[in-house]
Amino acid sequence: MARRKLMRYRVDMHSHEILSDVVAEQVRAHRTRLGLNREQLAEECARIGAPELTYAAITNIETGRRDKDGKRRREVTVDELMTFAYALGVPPLLLMLPLGSMDRVPSPAKWGGLHPHYAWQWVTGEEPPAFRDERGRTVVDSSGIGGEEGPNRTGVWRQVAVPTEVYRSLQATQAALRHASGQLHFAQARHGEDADATRKARGAYLDRLQEFAVVLNEMTDLGLNIPACDARWVDDMRQFDMLKRPEAVQILDTKD
Fold first, then answer.
1. What is the pLDDT of residues 30-80, one digit of tens each?
2. What is the dihedral of CA 81, 84, 88, 92, to 10 degrees?
3. CA atoms of 46 and 81, how far apart (whole Å)
4. Cα-Cα-Cα-Cα dihedral of 95, 169, 198, 246, to 10°?
């Protein structure tokens, strides 16, 4: 089996004062990997709808337009981060938190110096906010927002991060249901409706369907948008009364 080729870009933590420095370095590295010069990257940005990222703008971003003290005067905006990621075919977070090429990521905020993987998990809602203490340990930040009497930072995170956990559950149960649905179709086609193998596959399908419905109901309770679902799944969930609000689940339009 061919081994996956991993592109590594080693960067020096001490040369990066802020995250814009990391993003700029990663944009340059991925641009170089693709064999693009700045003019070509500017053309690609314009092609996907960001003509303001001209050759001059990209030059300023990559160099930072440093002042006499070496401090960056041209930071990278969130919009620019997303545009560069799309133009270069790179996950946006990898431009900001390059896994495997840095031991720490800088930031003007208190959490600066975290390992990129922990910072990645915090950004995606998997881990609470943390910082690196004077002994180099990662410590969950339970301080009060706005002062000691303010809301607990970790407590607030646990409340607002719920949708990220729910959507991960949605993805997992949807994948399991898709597999079970495929197994049922295969059993029906090969063995017929009344065969033991088909009955077993149908039972597994209904179990996965119920698990999927539980997540959809949780999304309904939380007021989250529910993505459109396969017509058969919706019909079966409605038939077996699995949904709290059947009308909230729309059928996926498969028309071209």
1. 999 999 999 999 999 999 999 999 999 999 999 988 888 878 888 999 999
2. 10
3. 15
4. -120
